[in-house]
Structures are given as structure tokens and as C-alpha cells.
Specification:
There is one protein chain. The protein has about 450 residues and is α+β, with helices and mostly antiparallel strands. Helix content is about 40%, strand content about 25%. A five-stranded antiparallel beta sheet has the order 5-4-8-7-6, with helices on both faces. Strands 10-12-13-15-14 form a five-stranded mixed beta sheet, with helices on one face. Strand 1 and strand 2 form a beta hairpin. It is elongated, with a radius of gyration of 34 Å. The protein binds adenosine-5'-diphosphate. The site of adenosine-5'-diphosphate has 21 residues, from helix 10 and helix 11.
Amino acid sequence: MESRSTIIQNDKTSEDAAQIALPLICNDVAIGALYVDVGQDFQRKDQSLLEAFSRQLARNLQRNELRNKELPHKTWWSSFSTYSLENRLEITNLVHGIIREQSFSAAASSYLKEAHAIAYLDGTLAYVNQRMKKLANLNSQDLNEMDLFKLLERFKTDVFNEPILAIRRVMQTGDSFECELNFAAEKTLSLQITLVKIPVNDQSIHETNVIKIPACFLITFRDVTAHKENEKLRSDLVHLMSHELRTPITSIQGFAEMLTYESEISEDSREYLKIIAEESNRAAKTLSNFLSVANLEQSDKQEVIKSPVKINRVVREVAEDYEKAAKCKRIRIVEQRSKYIPPIAADQGLITKAISHLVDNAIRYSPERSSVIISTILETDFLRVDVEDRGYGIPRSEQEKIWQKFYRVAHDGQDKQEETTGLGLSMVKEIIEQHNGEVSVQSEVGRGSRFSFKIPRL
Ligand code: ADP
């Protein structure tokens, strides 16, 4: 304790055994010593680990001791009273210890790859991490004059041209503001402004069900340039491959069909040609679905061109389109269109595609002599479309997964010819989400399924 340094004594008999004494120092005061007797496996490089441990131990001891101590005047004003100098010293020590421990989180955040800033509600900056200083090109002089608004000004783009409006919206709604900012030299940053809330009284910040009030803003910038480049590369590749494949597939399709009309070919060959034609049809359909999904994923949500669409009319047209396919399986299509359905803002082509696919599936995954019901329902804020069948149904464990690309459920009794792509429902989901809507499914094996989507009313 006098030397305030670690002392190590190796055993005479064995090199890897040692007795170690470490001072426990807190706020520059040696409050005790830790004695460790290591019987085996001691290495010199363990010394720094032990020292870090002893520093933490010293802090814990001091914290516990001070918190548990019965101070005669535990209230804060007692530190201003004339009585106890010792009291004041202890409280100062406790506060010092707590502040020091809290500074760890700030130090830790300087290691984060993201740029962070914390600002009080009046815009004063409370903390800016290393990454943010670099990204915003701030020196210590700038930092002194900087506030939240000036900081965000440094990241203005065409899309994010009035930072103050974003801040106001976050304050008003309590929801985070998120956007992607594109800069020259192909740099893309994703920005998030979050309103941090803390409990009104002394409850833990991790508790749920407590009343919280706004405390500060957390600003985060993430560099997503590499991610964006990858996405673009992937999408370019998909488009290139799809277009390259489309031409040969169309030729195979066309020529195989033409050859089936030849009279001088054997029955076997005709059968093979039929298979070639069917399989190339399937490949063409997969490609077209794949391209639709890729296109939808790529496009910005604002890019879907919306106009007033009368959903009842779309349902009518889809039902007519599928009349023939349904008849082949002796399936009855029933329309239950709600009388008063206001128009929705939508891309008519895409919505038609979504409903068509749901009806197509309902017919495909139902046995003969059943029915498919298409309903339109008006809800308070939404317009809902249900497509219901009395078909094979989908096991509960699969119901989440069917919305993923290429996911297919194997149904007993499903015709081999009806092999499909597993892309359709992911396309439907993408279309509905582009319209700020939601998709859902209810299904029971052996009884049928109900696929629904809802889109906000105009
Ligand atoms: P596909 O184009 O292969 O039909 P989807 O994405 O549309 O792909 O559907 C994925 C899987 O979900 C299908 O393989 C099918 O098993 C199941 N599925 C979709 N619709 C229904 C339905 N109405 N009834 C039963 N199963 C369905």
C-alpha cells in the first residue's frame, strides 16, 4: 500500500506459481490491498488483467461502502451544512466515482463505427463521438461553437434541406426520423434522429410500463456506401442475367411449340417436345416474377405512380380473368364486394397483379369442386381485400415463411405439373408495402386459407 504498485513474488520451487499483492486505489487514495496466491499457470502478462480487476474492485468497494453508510445527513444540502467535512468529502468521492463510471459509456462509444452525437432538447451538444467529429470535419474550436442545428447543417442535401423541420417532427411525434443522404462522390449516409426518453422518477431506464419524458436527441450517421454499391451491383447483375436468359428461353418456347405441329414426328418425340415447351414456359414465368420483385425492391417507395383506383372494379376484372381456369377445376369464384368502397391511391397495374396472384394461388391450391371468395371490406382507416379458399391450407409453422422469396410448401396431392416458383407471395407483399399497406394470412390445414391485404384509405 505504501509503494502503491503491484508486487509479484515467484515461488522458489515453481516458475508458474506466484504471490501477488495489488493496491486498491480509488480517487488517488489507497483503500486496501488485494493479495492473490496463484498456485499454477501464472504468466507475467496476467499482471495488467489483475491490475484492471483491482481497480474495478476498489471502485466497487468504495461505491458499496459509501452507499451503505449511514451518513448523518444523507440529503444533498447536508454537504453545505457547517457540520461535517468528512461527510462532504465522502459525498464528493461518491459523485466523483459515479461520474467516472458513467464516462465509460462515452469512452466506449468512441470505438463505435457509427457517428454519434447527443444533444439536449434546446440543441446544445452534450456529446460528440470521435467518428462524428471526423465525419462533420470538426476541430475543437468548431466544437465550442457548435450546436445540434449547426451540426446537421453540415449534412444538408436535396432531400434533407431543412434539418430544423426534421427535429420539430421528432419532437412532435416522438418517432425517429430516418433518411438516406446522398453526397457527391457516391457517398451515402443513413441518418437517424431519435428522441431519447427517460422515466419521470428514479425508475430504471430498462423498465417497461413507466411514464417517460423526452430527455435528449440521439443523432446517428451510418456510412452505407458499400452496402448501396453491393445492392446496385446485385440488382444490375439480376437484370443483366434475366435479360440474357429471356431471349434464349423465348426461342426454346417458340420452336418447341412450332415443332409439336409437325405431323411427321413420333408420339414419344411429341411428348418430349411438350415437356420442353412446358418447362420453358415455367422458366419464363420464374424470370418474369423474379424481375418484378427485383424491380419493386429497387424502386424507391415514392416512385410507384399512384392514381385513384376503384378496387371493386379491379376485383371484377380479376374474377373474370380467372373464370376459365376456375371452371377447369369446377371451382366457383364468389365476389363479395362491399357496396360503398371509396377509391384508393394506388398503381392499378400492381394492385391487379397482387389480387390476380392471390386468386391464382387460391385456385391452384384448392381441390376440385370448391369455392374461392374475393371480398372487399371498408375499415376505419383501411380498405381490406380478402381472398379465401377451401383448399389444402398451410401449416402454422410455415405461415410466416411463405412470404419469403423462393419459399414453397409441399402439399399432399399437389400435381407435379403445378410446380411453381415461390416468388409470387413475396411479390404481393412487396407491392402492398409499396402502398404503405400490410399483408396477412390465416390458414388451417385441410380447411383452407384466407389471404388479406389492407391499404390506407385516401
Ligand atoms: P408460387 O408462385 O410458388 O405459388 P407463392 O409465393 O405464391 O409461390 O406461394 C408460396 C407457397 O405458399 C406455395 O408454394 C404454396 O405452397 C403456399 N400457398 C400460397 N397460397 C396458398 C393457398 N391459397 N393455399 C395453400 N397454400 C398456399
